[in-house]
Amino acid sequence: MQTSIPYMQFRGGSSKGLFFKASDLPKDETLRNKFILAAMEGVGQGDPRQIDGLGGATSITSKVAIISLSDKEDADLDYLFLQVVVGKGKISTSQTCGNILAGVVPFAVESGMIKAKSPTTSARVNMVNTGGICEIIIETPDGKVNYAGNAKVDGVPGTAAAIICNYIGTEGATCGTLLPTGNLKDIVNGIEITSIDNGMPSVLIRAVDIGINGYESPAELDADEILKNKLESIRLQIGLKMNLGNVKEKTVPKMCILSKPLNGGSINTRTFLPHVCHEAIGVLGAVSVATACLLKGSVTDGIAVDCNNNKLSIEHPTGELTIQLDISNTNGTINFNKAGVIRTARLLSKGVVFIPENVEKPFKVD
Known about the structure:
The protein is of the alpha+beta class. It has two domains: 3-162 and 345-359, Diaminopimelate Epimerase, Chain A, domain 1, CATH 3.10.310.10; 186-338, Diaminopimelate Epimerase, Chain A, domain 1. It is 16% helix and 34% strand. The chain has helices at 29-41, 98-101, 104-110, 218-222, 225-241, 283-293; strands at residues 3-12, 15-21, 63-69, 77-85, 90-92, 120-127, 133-139, 163-168, 186-188, 191-197, 201-206, 254-259, 267-272, 311-316, 319-330, 333-343, 345-355. The chain has a 17-stranded mixed β-sheet that branches. The two termini are 18 Å apart.
């Protein structure tokens, strides 16, 4: 007697995950997490292959979105993001995900949570993990979600319909302030870094300062144990100063290595999540990098180029991600009001996922 729970699977941006209505899951957080792990990993929880579940055995394909109607006056939907930590049998809620976010409004329409309009449907999404609102606009001709289009997201094959994401109120969303240490630059283990949080807590490091050129492939960087040990030592120390506490078991802050752009962009990046190198870059991680490029005195000085029009192209291993920043200046202080980005999403499957009987006593939806 397995327990069945309705779900949909979406590719959102350059990530992929399972989407659930909050009402279809247990209210108890511990039990809910057991069900999520069972859906993603089956009875082999902690198996990095995720062979008995629906997970994709990588961090960017082991993601979950839990959606509900919002009680907030300034939001239509609540979005809780869960990162399944591959090989650990654990779930992290300490971050959000801007790629998976692209699938939230399509899911809400497909599941009947909100009614589509024509030709587009917009909704304001409360990002529960970190706070902040994202206004999302999707194409819904004749009241149905359109997935086909000409928008290209690097790191994703083909093209699809554009999804416009406008992030509002993400400055210091997790750490409390944009520069959580109070400094534009800190020195850890003799290496200059910039710690920043504009939606994703990130530690920025110049590639030359850690002995690489910054253009290595993710596979090359993943194989460099000396480099990864250097990054982890810095991460553990600066995490405390970023108001994140002991980050040994957390997925934030992300570690982002910077170098000069190669292909006409503003800056080049290699991002660790935090222990595996991303094949692209997370949306909100890119927002944090773009933000740092506009802050004179950060580690982006001398690396970032063409940062005068607030539209920055963040290069990554499989292409680039363009961030449009809406800023204002108050008495010489830059305020980051909004960050816009174009994503795409596609519904991949829907139905029910079966939870093994031995996970917990069967859960019945009222």
